[in-house]
Amino acid sequence: MGSSFHHFILVILCSSCLLSSYLLLGAAAAASSPKTRHFRWEVANMFWSPDCLENVVMGINGQFPGPTIKSKAGDTVVVHLTNKLHTEGLVIHWHGIRQFDTPWADGTASISQCVINPEETFVYRFKVDKAGTYFYHGHYGMQRSAGLYGSLVVDVADGEKEPFHYDGEFNILLSDWWHKNVHEQEVGLSSKPLRWIGEPQSILLNGRGQYNCSLAARLGNGSSSLCSLRADAQCAPQVLRVKPNKTYRLRIASTTSLSSLNLAIGNHKMVLVEADGNYVKPVAVDNIDIYSGESYSVLFTTDQNPSKNYWISVSQRGRKPPVPPPGLTILNYLPNSPFVPTSALPHSPAWDDITASKSFANKIVALLGLPTPPIRHDRRIFMLNTQNRIDGFIKWSINNISLVLPSTPYLGSLKHKLKGAFDNKNPPETFSSNYDIRIPPVNPNATQSSGVYKIEFNTTVDVILQNTNALAANVSEIHPWHLHGHDFWVLGYGEGKYSEEIHGKQLNLKNPPLRNTVVIFPYGWTVIRFVADNPGVWAFHCHIEPHLHMGMGVIFAEAVDRVKNIPDEAIACGQTGKMFMHNHHG
């Protein structure tokens, strides 16, 4: 790899102990005051060719993916969002932004707000309090699958420094793309028998992929001829142009609907430095796993043969072939032209190499100086992830409850103490100790509910996510779980059924990473801990779009009585809307 890379690793690792001094230095520096950044967006369906085949996508201001929001920590972002979809509502979730004091701006339909109706404008106003790599996406129906997403990058505040050095940066938002439209996908998921959405046709990098052809003739997969792509084609890859012997930051986020992915750069090692907007102890890796809802920053040094270009490859993980071919782009060493690399694609682990995935997950620990978790939990919730049947329809459930959302947003009904707006029965906190996670459920029946976990303010909550066998024998799926309104500490992963006696002592309380999304591996468990310090109503759900659509999520309500200044238009629908009308006319 060359001595420059090893020098680079040393520089990165040395910097890892300097987080606090960098931040102190930054605090002392004369910083300009935070800005308020205004955006005016219109969301509409439009024709586009994400993978060289024309289709309909949900775009923003005529762009796909939507515009990238660039801001600095401490800024306030104001998005005036107008719905130009003719026949459906709309919301946008700002993934990874914790929404302190603005839970109504979280962008979750029926949870934090009413949907924005056609021709209506809703104003999202929120503070981006922490530097990091984030993104935004639709959170109503399956609008994320329709292409409603974009990047949100928060740089450190003026006068502050990152705890690592780089000469330039790139940003890649990963997604997967189907040729079947989203409404057909939704109908299939709600049919008896279920019509599964199938594998995506393409993996997209910044909204660009190549279906049935490739930059390199798919290296023997698929089409035998090179794509004759014009550089200005909507599906032409965005080439990453680099100078030799520099260090670059690559920001990567995944808004996929289904796919777990692995990214590798030909001939280049990477050093992982950020996960979900939190610094991690720098660790050198050959490739990175990235699940839906996660984001990372890696550093790489351009210390390879400068007369060549190199592949950046994104391949699917954890699902049985046939799957879409890798998404590709080119790392273009200047002054070369962006010619197609002659080398083979970089090595990624086999699709079913879960050992490699677990090894990668366990390498990620917090950077020295980041907050450590409280030593004890006040409350512990076990969540059994199962696939079930309800009246013959296939659903996903947590502790045998499949989530359905009410017509009145929880934030409004809880704030105004409205009766009957959702199921008042508390959801179960655990599951039967004799449940066998290795076989399909003995009783596959479940029930639907809109019940809520009410959590005391400032308490420490542990969630034990327990994976199981699905309805079919010998099938246990990967589920990436995303928590709104918080970061959490990932205390540990393990195999089989979680046991406090056996596994409790193995949990990492010393330097667990802070995340907002975490995976549970097949037939495994994951333990997370968070502090309920953010009044509001927050979703916690599987980030696989069809799984959420099929009920795989729960709702946490936290000290809603403390929430102030909810804009009327955020919650003026359902029972809250009727209450407002009554008060207005009364």
TrEMBL record:
Protein known as: L-ascorbate oxidase
Main location: secreted
Cofactor(s), by name: Cu cation
Keywords: Copper, Disulfide bond, Metal-binding, Oxidoreductase, Repeat, Secreted, Signal
Domain Plastocyanin-like: 44-155, 170-333, 438-559
EC number: 1.10.3.3
Top EC category: oxidoreductase
UniProt subcellular location: Secreted
